[in-house]
Write a structure and sequence with these properties.
- It contains eleven helices and 16 strands.
- It has 402 residues and is of the alpha+beta class.
- It has a seven-stranded antiparallel β-sheet. The protein has a five-stranded mixed β-sheet with strand order 10-9-8-11-12, covered by helices on one side. The chain has a four-stranded mixed β-sheet with strand order 13-16-14-15, sandwiched between helices.
- Helix 1 packs antiparallel against helix 2 and helix 8 runs parallel beside helix 11.
- It is flat and about 75 Å long.
- 34% of the residues are buried.
Length: 402
């Protein structure tokens, strides 16, 4: 994402103009744009005109529209963002109050205006800073497989997306029909490799995780190297150093969480956002199992811990899901923004916002979307609560993601 223009007022209102350059930028835009914001972007609008004789004709025109946002629809598979609302500024082709859906596009500016006190809060400004950071964590590819099934996924700085699923029927080894099994397995490997090559850029050097139960992943690695050698594909052969074979309990995508916790993978991904978030959740769960009262989760419990000064300098960590900041109720969002500001700016603690599109964020969502590692133990923070949980905005489950 490229920052074109930024103008913030003292009361927290203001506007930014952003230039999305890659699909990942649409995810940041989805987390940045909220209902009641003003969004200005290029649009394609159908206009109906009536002639003097009463006949009508319909044409599509390119224009620029400003809408008052009412709803957002983000497709994680294609990284497309559709923003709907009522037109806020009259144009040659539209009137104020008409509905329109803006389809934000790569390589096209959009301007976002937020009105009211604290509209551009610390979380919103943090999203801009992170999205425009030129050294965002590199992508990591993963092929989670078992015989006949392969899931190809990409891990970015903010989310994990299933890009393609490969399924090929492989005959079982029966009697003297081992040859049919070998042919089926070779066809499966070839189909998986062809699919992978359509997804990745061989000119880039990024880790490619190959994971499976048994020896399927190591056999696939050998198949890749043999194919590159036989065909003289130097670019593919150069990827040999990026292939990391690890064990998984199954070939399904949910096994990715255990894969990313293995030492060899952690060593390769130690500088990525995914690995850092995963380690924080692991540290939290370890403290929780020890039951030494230094790990607490849930909105009321964490807020009490912050009030008591236990999430500050000296090891205090606040873990909060970015899904909480997508609450449509402004008062709910402000609750979490102020908590984040207090821990970071007043108490001096560490604040980590976990992506709800990564496994670590989903684990945190299961705990109410908020947790904390304390600098000293506290007892009975949950005495007055009866299962109160933070309201996490509903996310579509139509697409398979981690």
């Amino acid at each position: 994402m490229r920052l074109i223009k930024q103008n913030f007022e003292r009361d927290g209102s203001g506007l930014v103009t952003l230039f999305p350059e890659e699909p990942e930028d649409m995810w940041y835009a989805y987390n940045l744009i909220r209902p009641k914001d003003l969004l200005r972007a290029s649009a394609l609008r159908r206009v109906t005109t009536e002639s003097a004789t009463g006949s009508t004709s319909s044409t599509r025109v390119h224009t620029t529209l400003t809408i008052r946002v009412e709803s957002l629809d983000f497709d994680p598979q294609s990284s497309q963002l559709h923003v709907s609302g009522r037109i806020a500024e009259e144009t040659k082709f539209t009137k104020v109050g008409q509905y329109h859906t803006l389809d934000l596009e790569l390589q096209r500016n959009f301007t976002l205006t937020k009105d009211g006190d604290e509209a551009w809060d610390s979380v919103a400004r943090g999203i801009i800073k992170e999205s425009c950071d030129p050294v965002k964590s590199a992508d990591v590819w993963a092929v989670v497989m078992q015989e006949g099934l392969a899931n190809l996924a990409v891990l970015t700085g903010a989310r994990t997306v299933l890009r393609q699923r490969v399924e090929v029927s492989i005959p079982r080894k029966r009697g003297g029909r081992a040859g049919d099994h070998d042919k089926g397995l070779e066809k499966f490997f070839q189909t998986t490799l062809d699919t992978l090559l359509r997804q990745i850029d061989l000119n880039e050097s990024k880790p490619i995780l190959l994971a499976s139960p048994g020896f399927t992943a190591s056999s696939f690695q050998k198949f890749i190297i043999d194919t590159a050698t036989r065909t003289g594909n130097k670019a593919l052969l150069a990827q040999k150093v990026n292939l990391v074979v690890v064990h998984s309990s199954s070939g399904h995508l949910h096994s990715l969480n255990e894969i990313l916790q293995t030492p060899e993978v952690m060593a390769r991904l130690k500088d990525t956002q995914y690995a850092r978030e995963g380690k924080l959740m692991d540290d939290f769960m370890t403290l929780l199992r020890k039951d030494d009262r230094r790990a607490w989760y849930g909105p009321n419990e964490v807020e009490k811990a912050v009030e008591k000064g236990a999430v500050g300098r000296g090891g205090g960590v606040l873990l909060i899901s970015n899904a909480l900041f997508r609450a449509q109720d402004v008062t709910i969002r402000r609750r979490w923004v102020r908590l984040v500001d207090k821990v970071r700016d007043v108490e001096g603690g560490n604040v980590r916002t976990l992506s709800s599109e990564h496994e670590s964020g989903k684990r945190l969502d299961g705990l109410g979307g908020i947790a904390a590692i304390l600098t000293f133990p506290l007892d009975d923070l949950d005495d007055d609560d009866e299962g109160t949980k933070a309201e996490i905005p509903h996310e579509s489950t139509d697409d398979v993601q981690i």
